Amino acid sequence: MNDVPRRTTPPAALAAALAACLFAAGCVGDPSEPQQDGQEAAATEEQPPLDEPRDEPVTTASDEESAQAEQPEVETNEAAPESPEGDAEPESDSPNGVLDVTEFSAEPQESNGFPELLTDVPEDAHLLLQEVRVGIHEEYHRIVFEHSGAGAPGWSAEYVDEAVEPGSGFPIDMSSEAILYVGVVGLEPGNAGQSDGHLELSNLVDTQGTVFSEAVTTFVHHGSASYYIGLDTARDYRVSVWEHPDGPRLIIDVLV
């Protein structure tokens, strides 16, 4: 039997073929691991972040506080409020811009339900007088008694012959032709004076050309205090209380 000659692969050629196969396998890699080409990688990097700003504005805590600070003061009795400018008290003229003089009178006046307070005042409200200031408006002049604390005090007002201290009744020296008395209730319980943070004003220094010639405020006596306003003559007036974040403001407007 004739032997058929067999073709054999030289060892060198076999080694080269095996190396080529291993090289190709290394390039392909594990098919379970997806590969990204350059374009796919670039596309992934260009995706926008998840926290990209939205078109709608987002209200923050500071925004809410600013919005609350800009709210107009709320009046707690009859006079109609107007928009305040800055920290000034709002005027209370008629909507058509004409002052409603029927709101003014020289007769005794008092807050709703006096001697009850206009609003509930917590025991720790610490309502005390902080400042007295005056201003000029068209057809009337204004004096403001600004308080610290929360709530709205009650008040009564009338022209009197003389000013006196609460409790003792000792006279207070005032030289004005007319004296408008405003009694305020619902202040710091008990007694309070200058050392407690309550303003005891002996005279109004800067009258700013108003009809107010004097202003005297007494100490707090059993939660009440007396405010006396000196005028050149008895004039029609109106009284209102405005709530404010810094404390209530007792406002007296006098026709001129």
Automatic annotation (TrEMBL):
Residue stretches in coiled coil: none
Protein name, entry field: AMIN-like domain-containing protein
Ranges where the record places region Disordered: 27-99
UniProt keyword annotation of Signal present: yes
Alphabetical list of InterPro entries matching this protein: AMIN-like (IPR056303)
Organism expressing this protein natively: Nesterenkonia salmonea
Comp. bias intervals (Acidic residues): 62-76
Alphabetic keyword roster: Signal
Domain AMIN-like: from-to ranges: 128-254
Alphabetical list of PROSITE patterns matching this protein: PROKAR_LIPOPROTEIN
